[in-house]
Amino acid sequence: MKVLFVTSEAHPLIKTGGLADVCGSLPIALKRQRQDVRVVLPAYPQVVAKAGALKLLAEVTLPDSSQPVRILAGQLPESKVPLYLVDTPELFDRDGGPYGDQHGEDWHDNAERFAHFSQVAVEIAMDRAGLNWQPELVHCHDWQSGLVPALLSLEENRPKTLFTIHNLSYQGLFDHLTFARLGLADSLWHMHGLEFHGMLSMIKGGLIYADWLTTVSPTYAREIQTGEYGYGLEGLLSHRADRLIGILNGIDDEIWNPNRDALIEHPFNAHKLKGKAANKAALQQQFGLTVDADRPLFGLVGRLVEQKGIDLVIENLPWLLARGAQLALLGSGESRFESVLLDFAKDYPDQIGLEIGYNEQLAHRIEASADLFLMPSRFEPCGLNQLYSLRYGTVPVVRSTGGLADSVIHADAESMADGSATGFRFEHADIGGLRWALGEALNLFNSDPKGWQQLVRNGMRQDFSWKSSAHHYIELYHKALS
C-alpha cells in the first residue's frame, strides 16, 4: 500500500511533542510490514542538518506562483523510509523552532508557511510534483497539515485521506483576512468547511474533509466528543463519530528495553528482576536518599504544570512522606511549582531527589529504578511515560483519562485474581482522588510482596510496541480504501 505521511515534525529530525514521536516511528513500523510509506516534512534547518545525505529530487511550481519549490530527498534516520523535504527557505530556513522564534513567539506568517506546505503536499499526492509516484492514501497530522484533506476534496481521482488528531487544543486559528490572503477556494469558507466562528480553522480542514479520523487513544476519541475536551468542536466530532477511531500510540521498544538499555546501570527483565532492585539502590545513592529496598520509591518525569497534575502531587507530598515514601523527580515547568518542590527537597533530603530540567539518562534511570510512577494528568491524549513504566516494571499511578485509561488496568481483587492488573487508576482530578490511589498502591506494596511482584510482571508483559500500533493502522488503511 502506498501511503504519504504529511507532518510538521518527525523525531529525531525535529520535535516539540508527541506528534514527532509518532511520525518518526510509525512510518518505520509500517515500512517493516511492507508498506510503501513516504514522509514529507518542511526543510527546517535542524532537519536538513540531521537528515544526512540529501539530493534535489524535483521542482514543483504551485498555482499562482512563478517560483518553483525545491523538493529534497533523503531517508528518515536509521531507516529506509523515503523522506521528502519542502525546501522554501523564505518560509522554513529560520533560527528558532518549527512554529515560533527563539523567544517562544509564534511566527507571524504560520498560516502562509503551512498553507504553502499543504499545497506542495497536494501536488505530491496528485503526482504533479515529478516524483512519478502517487499514494493511495494520504495520512495527515494535526492542524499544520489540516488544509491537505480540504484541498484534495477539490480534486478528481484523489487519494483517500486520513487525519490524526494528536492534541485538539492546537487548532491553527487565523482571521478571515488570512483566508482571503491565502487564495483558498471560496467554496471552502462556510460553517461546514474551514470557517469557525468567523475564523479560519486549519484543523477543521482535516476534521471535515478527511475520509477517516483517528486520534492517539480510544478514550481520547470519546473525550473529544464532549464539551470538557472538545474545544468547541465536540459537535462536529460527534457528527463524525462513525469515522473517528482511537489507536493507542506505541513506544520504541529498542530504545526503551530494560534488558538492553545502555543508559541504566543494571539490565533486567520480567524473569530476572534483581537488576531492578540494584538500579533502585543506585538511584537512591545518586540522589542522596536513604538506601532502603523496602521503602516505596515513586518516580515522576515530566512537565511541572497543572495539566500534568503536579499540584495534586505537591498537595499529597506531606501525606506520602509521612508514610516513609521517597520521590525521584525530573522535570521543569511553572516557577511556582519548581520553587515549592525545591523547598520540599531541601527539607526532606533523604526522601526527595529532584533535578529541574531534562536529562535523558536520568529519565531512563528513574523508569528503571522506581517502584511506582506518578502520572495524575488532568488530560492526556495518549501519554508515553506510563508505557515506559510498564515496560520497566515501574507500576503506574494514573488518572483515568485518555491513553492512561486505555493502557493501565486498575489493580482490584478481580484484576489481581485474573492476572490483568497493571497499575492504579483514579477518576477525579482532585487531591482526594490521587490520595485514594496512592493508598491502594502503598497498601499492596507494603502488605503483599508476592502480589506486587506479580503486578510488576503483568505490566512488563504488555505489548505497546509500534509494531502493534502499525497493525491497527494498516487495518484502517484497508478499510479507508475499500
From TrEMBL:
Record-level Gene Ontology MF annotations: alpha-1,4-glucan glucosyltransferase (ADP-glucose donor) activity; alpha-1,4-glucan glucosyltransferase (UDP-glucose donor) activity
Keywords, A to Z, come to: Glycogen biosynthesis, Glycosyltransferase, Transferase
Gene3D superfamilies documented for this protein: Glycogen Phosphorylase B
Q: Where is the Glycosyl transferase family domain?
A: 289-422
The reaction(s) this protein catalyses: [(1->4)-alpha-D-glucosyl](n) + ADP-alpha-D-glucose = [(1->4)-alpha-D-glucosyl](n+1) + ADP + H(+)
Q: Which CDD domains match?
A: GT5_Glycogen_synthase_DULL1-like
Source domain of life is: Bacteria
| Domain Starch synthase catalytic per the UniProt entry, residue ranges | 2-238
**Is the keyword Transcription assigned to this protein?**
no
- What EC numbers are recorded for this enzyme? 2.4.1.21
Q: Identify the Pfam families for this entry.
A: Glyco_transf_5, Glycos_transf_1
Q: Which GO terms describe its biological process?
A: glycogen biosynthetic process
Kindly list the positions annotated as binding ADP-alpha-D-glucose: 15
Pathway-wise, it operates in:
Glycan biosynthesis; glycogen biosynthesis
Q: Function, please? A: Synthesizes alpha-1,4-glucan chains using ADP-glucose.
What family is it from?
A: Belongs to the glycosyltransferase 1 family. Bacterial/plant glycogen synthase subfamily.
User: Which NCBIfam families does UniProt cross-reference here?
Assistant: glgA (TIGR02095), PRK00654.1-2 (NF001899)
What is this protein identified as? Glycogen synthase
* Natural source organism: Solemya pervernicosa gill symbiont
Whichever gene encodes this chain, its name is glgA
